[in-house]
Amino acid sequence: MALRRFLNPPPRYAPWEKPRYRDFEKKVLIVGGGFAGYTAAKTLCELVRDRDDVGVLVLSRENYFTFWPIVPEVVSNDVDAHNVAQPLRRALITAGASFRRARVQRVVPERNVVVAEGDIEFPYDQLVIAVGGQPNFFGIPGVEEHALSMRGLEDAEQIRNRVIERFEEVSLIRGEIPESKLTFVVIGGGATGVEVASQIHTLVHEHLASDYPNIDPNRVRIYLVEALPEILPELDPALRKAARNRLYRQRIEVLTNTLAEEVTADCVRLKGGGEISSENVIWTAGNRPNAVIQRLGLPYDEKNGIRVDEYLRVEGHRDIWAIGDCAAIPDVRQEGKIVPPNAQAAVQEGKTVARNVLAVLDGREDELERFEYKPLGQLVELGSDFAVNEVMGVRFSGFLAALFWRLAYLVRLTSPQSKARVAADWIVSFFLRPAVTQVRGARNNADDRT
Ligand SMILES: Cc1cc2nc3c(=O)[nH]c(=O)nc-3n(C[C@H](O)[C@H](O)[C@H](O)COP(=O)(O)OP(=O)(O)OC[C@H]3O[C@@H](n4cnc5c(N)ncnc54)[C@H](O)[C@@H]3O)c2cc1C
């Protein structure tokens, strides 16, 4: 019982004593419950734990927080998608904040309100925008219609379902099997593209191969297409080489200096004339700030996001702040550069913005903190038994690096349930090959009804 109580701490306010958000003297509204928004809310709640004048409300499109670094593992089914979706409500209510699932549409700074879908208004004294990013297709013809992207848990499940679908289809084909059916093309050689290509390899060779004895898994071709001369350009050259060798051993064909010019239903056309015959294209080559920022009425630049100063405050707005992938944050370490859009930056920004918002609420503007991004390193997993890591200048790769990758992210998962379930998924998939089923929904059974 004591352990159960320890693992399930009571919320800061009992339901009958919690004031309504609107009734707090100082209201902080946070839009977005991802790495940046969630961290800002949690930090602020910790800072005002002993005060009753500051109310925090988080509005987010989903009622869960997607732990992105583990999402590629959903493709191979090493981790169940539900375990990567960490419940937002419980964590925030326990911390003392309020939560509403709402899709924000615009800000009205003149009246200090945010308007969500359904014309519902939410007031604020201080507002933090953290709505994240979305894929950037750079206007390349056919990508949006024919490629799968990797910007959500549903996307990862869709990629897994696509692989299974092709295996089911091919196992029914009597004659020649079109090459396009069993060819998978991942466009984008950054960390996400490399991880997705490796997870497709794991799914095919480790999980599906023995369930489909009439399909030779070596007929499956996986391509990784990158426009730059190198994959993983942000990594140290030795680690890059280790990753290339691993991809080579997995028979993933890496095409660098290769630009995808068009994607059709059954091929990828490459600049310079070549083409890859494939009905399965996955786009991971670019991200941009969430398009909703264009409607918020705040200063932004389309490529990098809402314009903020070095304190994370939106240009020209004393009470509005922006953080995470949706914000163009000046990198004080390098003149003219902006902070890269990644999870560790988003978490650091969330902590700084919480302290700055409180400083303004308390009239301590002279204590505002400049945001300085401190990169801690990079971890890239290529299958469950291999990773390439750079942590505080130390570089290592291989099986131990894969163990480190898993431990590092297990510690960072915020929900205790997610931690326990993800750890269980990893332990089970180490001993038992994950059973991979394709849940297709009722629409596929429509013909069976009388
Ligand atoms: C597949 C994948 C793997 C990644 N792996 C890594 C990694 O290993 N390491 C790393 O450092 N980074 C990684 N990243 C990048 C990292 O996840 C992002 O940089 C980070 O999530 C940014 O945090 P954020 O809070 O700005 O956005 P998010 O975490 O995406 O959160 C945005 C939030 O805003 C909400 N929202 C969006 N629109 C609205 C709206 N209109 N109204 C209300 N709410 C809204 C969303 O529901 C969400 O809660 C990965 C990204 C992807 C896609």
Automatic annotation (TrEMBL):
Domain (External alternative NADH-ubiquinone oxidoreductase-like C-terminal): residue spans on this chain: 377-431
Coiled-coil intervals, chain numbering: none
Keywords noted in UniProt: FAD, Flavoprotein, NAD, Oxidoreductase, Transit peptide
Recorded GO MF terms: NADH dehydrogenase (quinone) (non-electrogenic) activity
Domain FAD/NAD(P)-binding: start-end pairs: 26-350
PANTHER family assigned: EXTERNAL NADH-UBIQUINONE OXIDOREDUCTASE 1, MITOCHONDRIAL-RELATED (PTHR43706:SF47), NADH DEHYDROGENASE (PTHR43706)
Pfam families tied to this protein: NDH2_C (PF22366), Pyr_redox_2 (PF07992)
Name of the protein described by the UniProt record: NADH:ubiquinone reductase (non-electrogenic)
Reactions it catalyzes: a quinone + NADH + H(+) = a quinol + NAD(+)
Family indicated by similarity: Belongs to the NADH dehydrogenase family.
